[in-house]
C-alpha cells in the first residue's frame, strides 16, 4: 500500500495526463478542421478554374460538370464540428469520472496508519466493511477527518488481526469496536463500465451518419424508402410547350383543357363544371405520351410531380402505399398541382379474383388500392389533377379507369403522313443542312418514307442521319442521301458487304425485287412504290421493296387481292425470268398465307365460306371454334386464292417483260431506285396516287435546290 502523499501525487499526475490528452485532442481536431477546410477550398477553387478554362466548349463543360456532380466527391469532406464536440464530451466525461473516483478515496490510508493514529488512540467509533473490499472507519473527536478508508484483504484475516490488536491494547471484549458488513454501490465505477459501450455507440452513430450523407455512395435512399421520389417541374425547369409537340391535335386539345382548368378554374366553376380528377394517356410506345405530359408541365406553371409506376414498388412490404400517400400529400400542400405517373400499368393491373394474389403481387395490389383511395378521397375542387401514361390500357383495373378517378381516356395513335411531316419539321430544326436543301420538301419526302413510324422512331431517324453525315466527314451539312441511309438503317439494319453475293445471286435478287415493284406499279389498288433496294442488310434481308400504305386501314376486296398479288410478284419474277425459284420468297409466302386466311375466315370475303368470322388469334393451337370439314374448306379456299393471284401476276409480268428486264438491269447497276427512277424507266404509274399523298410521294430529293434557313 502507498502512503497518502504518494496517492495524492499519483492523482495529480493522472489529472495532468488527462488534461494534456484533451488539449492534444482539441488541437488535433482544430488542425483537422483547417486541413479539411483547405482541401474543400482547394477543390472549389479547382472546380471554378476548370469551369473557366473550359467555357469555350459549352457542351463538354456541361457534360463534365454533370459527370463530376454525379460520380465524384471532394477527397476530404469539410470538418464537422459536431464530431469533435462529441469526442470532447466522451473524453471530458471520462476525466470527470476519474476525478470523482479519485476524490472518493482521498482519505484512504494504510492499516498501519489506522492502527497508529486512530485505533491506538481510541478514536475509532465504528467500522463498516463495504462489499468485503475496504473498511470505512468513523472517527470520533477527529480534528483532521471524520471518515477514513483502508483496503482489507481476507475478511477472516482482518477480523483476527483486529481482535488481536484490541486484546493487546487491553480492551474488554464488550468494548470492542463494532464491525458491520454493508453492501454499497460505487456509482463512479458503475458509470465507468459503460464508457466502452458509449464509445462503440458513438462510432456506430458516426458510421450511420456517413452512410446517410447524400450522394452515390450514401444510403440516403435506404432511410427515405417510404418517401415518394418525384421529379418536380420547378427543379427540371421544363421548357417544353405545346408548340414543341407536333401532331396529336385532338390529344393536345383535350389535354390543354386541364391546363385551363388549373389556370382559370373560376371560368368553369361559374358554369357548374368541375375539374376532372385525372386523364389517362393511352397509345403505342413512342407516340409522345411523356412528351405531352412535359408540355403540360411547361404550360401549366403549377407544381408538377412526375414519377414512374415502378418507383412505388420495393423489396420491403408497405413501401408502395407509403410512397403513394407521401406523393398525394405533397401535391395537396402545393395545390393546384399535377401528378404524372408514367407506365402506370406496372401497378395498375387487374387485381386477382378473390382479393389474394400472393407474394410481391399482393404488395402491388396494396399500392393500387392506396392509389384508388387517394384519387377518390380528395374533392374535385382541391386542384390536384392526376395524369398517367400507358401502352397497355387493356390490362388496367376497371376501378382505376372509371369516371371519378380517370375521367378522361385520351388515345394517342400513330401519326399519319401529315402528322409525320409536322414531327419531322420540329426535329429537323437543330440539324445543319447543306446550302441547297429545302427543309420543307425534305420533311415531306421523309414523311412518305417512314409509314407507321412514331415520334420516337422519327427522332431516331434524324439522329442516325446526322451520324451518317458525321461518319463521312461532311463539311456542308446533312444531305438527303444521309436521311435515305438512316431510313434504310432503321428498317433493315446496317449495310453488309456486297461481296457476299455472286453476280448470279445479285441478278436473282434484282428480278425478285423488280417483280414486287412493277406488280404494285401496274395494279390499281396496290400501295405506291417508294424505293427498291438490293443492298444486303444486317437483319438478314438481301433486298426490299418499300411501299406507302394508306393511313386508314379500310380495305376493299379488290385492294386485298392486289396486296396478295404484289407479295407474290417476287416469286413469279424468279420463275419467269430466272427459270428457277429460291428460298428468298419464304417470308412472302408466310405473309400471303396469313393474309388469305384472314380474307377467308375472318373478313367474310369468300363466297364459299360465307359471312362468318372464325377469329383464332390468341387461341391455343389445339382449339378451334369450327369443325374439321370447315377447316378443310378454309385451307382449300386459301390455296385457290393464292393460285389465282399467282397466275394473275405471272400474266402481268409476262405482258411487259421488256420493262421488267429494263428495270431489273437498272436496279442491278444502281442497287437502289426511288419512285422517280422507276417512273423514268418504265413510265408514269397508270393509276395516279391519292391527292392527299401525291405531294409526299412525288417529292423528288434530286430536285431539292431551295436555300434553307438552317
UniProtKB/TrEMBL annotation:
This protein's GO cellular component annotations are: m-AAA complex
Q: Where is the composition biased (Basic and acidic residues)?
A: 48-73
For activity, the cofactor(s) needed are:
Zn(2+)
The protein's location, in the record's own words, is: Mitochondrion membrane
Q: Where is this region: Disordered?
A: 48-78
- State the source organism's domain of life: Eukaryota
Q: Name one GO molecular function term.
A: zinc ion binding
State the annotated membrane topology for this chain: Multi-pass membrane protein
EC numbers listed for it are: 3.4.24.-
One Pfam family this sequence matches: Peptidase_M41
Q: Name one GO biological process term.
A: mitochondrial protein processing
| Positions of the AAA+ ATPase domain | 275-416
- Residues forming coiled coils: none
Keywords (A to Z) from UniProt? ATP-binding, Hydrolase, Membrane, Metal-binding, Metalloprotease, Mitochondrion, Nucleotide-binding, Protease, Transmembrane, Transmembrane helix, Zinc
The family annotation for this protein states:
In the N-terminal section; belongs to the AAA ATPase family.
Q: Which NCBIfam families match?
A: FtsH_fam (TIGR01241)
Q: What is this protein called?
A: AFG3 family protein
Amino acid at each position: 500500500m502507498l502512503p497518502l502523499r504518494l496517492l495524492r501525487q499519483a492523482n495529480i499526475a493522472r489529472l495532468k495526463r488527462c488534461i494534456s490528452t484533451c488539449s492534444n485532442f482539441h488541437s488535433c481536431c482544430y488542425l483537422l478542421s483547417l486541413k479539411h477546410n483547405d482541401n474543400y477550398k482547394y477543390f472549389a477553387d479547382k472546380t471554378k478554374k476548370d469551369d473557366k478554362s473550359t467555357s469555350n466548349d459549352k457542351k463538354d463543360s456541361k457534360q463534365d460538370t454533370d459527370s463530376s456532380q454525379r460520380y465524384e466527391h471532394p477527397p476530404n469532406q469539410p470538418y464537422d464540428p459536431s464530431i469533435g464536440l462529441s469526442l470532447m464530451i466522451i473524453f471530458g466525461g471520462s476525466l470527470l469520472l476519474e476525478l470523482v473516483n479519485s476524490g472518493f478515496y482521498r482519505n484512504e490510508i494504510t492499516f498501519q496508519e489506522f492502527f497508529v493514529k486512530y485505533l491506538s488512540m481510541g478514536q475509532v467509533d465504528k467500522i463498516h466493511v463495504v462489499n468485503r473490499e475496504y473498511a470505512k472507519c468513523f472517527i470520533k473527536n477527529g480534528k483532521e477527518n471524520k471518515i477514513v478508508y483502508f483496503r482489507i484483504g481476507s475478511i477472516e484475516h482482518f477480523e483476527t488481526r483486529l481482535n488481536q490488536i484490541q486484546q493487546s491494547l487491553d480492551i474488554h471484549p464488550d468494548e470492542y469496536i463494532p464491525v458491520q458488513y454493508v453492501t454499497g454501490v460505487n456509482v463512479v465505477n458503475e458509470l465507468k463500465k459503460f464508457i466502452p459501450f458509449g464509445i462503440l455507440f458513438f462510432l456506430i452513430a458516426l458510421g450511420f451518419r456517413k452512410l446517410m450523407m447524400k450522394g452515390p455512395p450514401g444510403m440516403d435512399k435506404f432511410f427515405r424508402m417510404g418517401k415518394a421520389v418525384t421529379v418536380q417541374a420547378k427543379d427540371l425547369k421544363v421548357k417544353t410547350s405545346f408548340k414543341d409537340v407536333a401532331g396529336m391535335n385532338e390529344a393536345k386539345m383535350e389535354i390543354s383543357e386541364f391546363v385551363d382548368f388549373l389556370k382559370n378554374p373560376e371560368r368553369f366553376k361559374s358554369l357548374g363544371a368541375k375539374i376532372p380528377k385525372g386523364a389517362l394517356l393511352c397509345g403505342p410506345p413512342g407516340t409522345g405520351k411523356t412528351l405531352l405530359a412535359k408540355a403540360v408541365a411547361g404550360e401549366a406553371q403549377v407544381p408538377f410531380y412526375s414519377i414512374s409506376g415502378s418507383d412505388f414498388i420495393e423489396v420491403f412490404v408497405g413501401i408502395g402505399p407509403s410512397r403513394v400517400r407521401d406523393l398525394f400529400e405533397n401535391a395537396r400542400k402545393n395545390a393546384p398541382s399535377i401528378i404524372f405517373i408514367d407506365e402506370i400499368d406496372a401497378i395498375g393491373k387487374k387485381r386477382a379474383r378473390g382479393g389474394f394474389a400472393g407474394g410481391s403481387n399482393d404488395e402491388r395490389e396494396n399500392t393500387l388500392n392506396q392509389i384508388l383511395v387517394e384519387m377518390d378521397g380528395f374533392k374535385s375542387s382541391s386542384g390536384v389533377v392526376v395524369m398517367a401514361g400507358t401502352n397497355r390500357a387493356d390490362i388496367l383495373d376497371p376501378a382505376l379507369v372509371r369516371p371519378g378517378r380517370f375521367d378522361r381516356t385520351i388515345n394517342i395513335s400513330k401519326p399519319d403522313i401529315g402528322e409525320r411531316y409536322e414531327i419531322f419539321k420540329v426535329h429537323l430544326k437543330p440539324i445543319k443542312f447543306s446550302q441547297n436543301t429545302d427543309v420543307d420538301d425534305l420533311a415531306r419526302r421523309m414523311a412518305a418514307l417512314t409509314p407507321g413510324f412514331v415520334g420516337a422512331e422519327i427522332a431516331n431517324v434524324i439522329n442516325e442521319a446526322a451520324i451518317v453525315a458525321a461518319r463521312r466527314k461532311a463539311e456542308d451539312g446533312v444531305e438527303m442521301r444521309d436521311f435515305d441511309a438512316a431510313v434504310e438503317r432503321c428498317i433493315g439494319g446496317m449495310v453488309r458487304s456486297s461481296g457476299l453475293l455472286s453476280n448470279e445471286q445479285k441478278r436473282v435478287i434484282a428480278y425478285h425485287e423488280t417483280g414486287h415493284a412493277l406488280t404494285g406499279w401496274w395494279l390499281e389498288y396496290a400501295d405506291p412504290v417508294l424505293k427498291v433496294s438490293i443492298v444486303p442488310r444486317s437483319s438478314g434481308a438481301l433486298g426490299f421493296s418499300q411501299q406507302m400504305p394508306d393511313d386508314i386501314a379500310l380495305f376493299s376486296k379488290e385492294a386485298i387481292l392486289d396486296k396478295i398479288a404484289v407479295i407474290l410478284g417476287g416469286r413469279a419474277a424468279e420463275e419467269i425470268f430466272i427459270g428457277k425459284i429460291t428460298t428468298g420468297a419464304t417470308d412472302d409466302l408466310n405473309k400471303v398465307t396469313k393474309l388469305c386466311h384472314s380474307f377467308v375466315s375472318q373478313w367474310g370475303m369468300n363466297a364459299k365460306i360465307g359471312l362468318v368470322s372464325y377469329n383464332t388469334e390468341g387461341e391455343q393451337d389445339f382449339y378451334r371454334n369450327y369443325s374439321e370439314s370447315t377447316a378443310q374448306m378454309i385451307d382449300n379456299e386459301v390455296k385457290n386464292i393464292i393460285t389465282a393471284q399467282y397466275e394473275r401476276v405471272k400474266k402481268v409480268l409476262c405482258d411487259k417483260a421488256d420493262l421488267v428486264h429494263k428495270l431489273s438491269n437498272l436496279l442491278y447497276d444502281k442497287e437502289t431506285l426511288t419512285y422517280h427512277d422507276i417512273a423514268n424507266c418504265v413510265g408514269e404509274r397508270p393509276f395516279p396516287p391519292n391527292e392527299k399523298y401525291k405531294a409526299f410521294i412525288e417529292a423528288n430529293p434530286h430536285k431539292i435546290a431551295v436555300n434553307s434557313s438552317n
